[in-house]
Amino acid sequence: MGKQEIRTAMILAAGFGTRMKNIMNNTPKPLLPLGSTNLLHLNLIKMYNAGIKRVVINLHHYADKIKNYLYYNPIPHLEILFSEEKTILGTGGGIANAEKYFENENILVTNADIISNLNYQDFFDRFYSLDPLASIAVLPSKNYLEYGLITYDKNKLTSFKLRNEIPEPEEKTAIFMGYHILTPQARKYLKPIFSSIITSCYYQVLKADQYINVYIHNGLWIDVGTREKYLDILDLIEKGKIHLDSFK
Q1: Which CATH architecture has domain 8-247?
Q2: What's the pLDDT score for residue 22?
Q3: 140 near 218, Cβ under 8 Å?
Q4: What single string gives the DSSP state of each residue in 90-119?
Q5: Using CA atoms, how far apart are residues 225 and 23, in angstroms rounded to an integer?
Q6: Burial of 195 (0-12, 13-18, 19+ CB in 10 A)
Q7: 117, exposed or middle or buried, with CB in 10 Å at 0-12, 13-18, 19+?
Q8: Is pLDDT of 221 > 90?
Q9: Which of the residue ranges 43-52, 196-205, 239-248 would you say has the lowest mean pLDDT?
Q10: CA–centroid distance for 49 within its chain
Q11: Taking a C-beta distance cutoff of 8 angstroms, is the pair 191, 93 a contact?
Q12: Per-residue model confidence as pLDDT tens digits over 162-179
């Protein structure tokens, strides 16, 4: 089988960054520095290296700063499109609002505040070999105190749990890493109103007993969504305990 491609991606970057507290200093969270780079640049380079040709970025908070950064720091041969939101639409509404940029195609979607060494090509290949309605990348974990976990059986998503919800001992659980592959059929569940993709799409798909693939990732994944986690990664970079080239 030849290499399976996904040509279009979306980065969810419209959030207010409230969990960063006072550390942002008028800098949008996707542009917070990590060594000599930043979260947004790392994610874009990773997409480019995986063969992505065009990336849609939804914007709301500090939209002009993100646009200006990309104007002065373009990535050659990677088309960037902006989906601006007058009022913030959440993950589900944000994707639906950007549908006009998608050409009835499968798309990769990521959060702006995560980095990992997830192998995109293997993620794509597994998706195409199984033909699910959608696929999500997950990190096996029992950490229900910090995250709402997902449960799965034989690589099929079975449920989403709330944070602090204790899983049953026999349940296979994982953290949803914030990476999705969405088919046009999956995106039909979404509307351009404020909503979460989990409640507006995945809950409905599970009720209909349709197949959402769970892609198991056992490598590096860092959630940079809070002030504490951001400071932690800066410390690890400074001490040479992580190398950002691992995430490209």
Answers
A1: Alpha-Beta Complex (3.90)
A2: 61
A3: yes
A4: HHHHHHHHTGGGS-S--EEEEETTEEE---
A5: 12
A6: buried
A7: middle
A8: yes
A9: 239-248
A10: 16
A11: yes
A12: 999 999 999 999 999 999
Q: Confirm if 194 and 188 have CB atoms less than 8 A apart.
A: no
CA nearest to 202, candidates 241, 127, 152, 140: 152
Least confident stretch, 26-35, 158-167, 176-185: 26-35
Average pLDDT over residues 36-64: 96
Give the tens place of pLDDT for each residue, 65-98.
999 999 999 999 999 999 999 999 999 999 999 9
In angstroms, the first-to-last Cα distance of the chain is 25
Q: In Å, how far from its chain's centre is CA 161?
A: 19
Instruction: Kindly report the backbone phi and psi dihedral angles of residue 216, in degrees, each rounded to the nearest multiple of 5, phi listed first.
Output: -85, 125
Residue owning tokens 């639906």: 96
> Which two tokens mark 200?
């507006």
pTM score, whole prediction: 0.94
Per-residue model confidence (pLDDT) at position 226: 87
Read off the tokens for 241.
């305990």
C-alpha 7/C-alpha 119 separation (Å) is 16
Amino acid identity for residue 21 in this structure: K
Q: Where are the domains of the chain?
A: 8-247
Query: Which residue is it, tokens 């700063």?
Result: 65
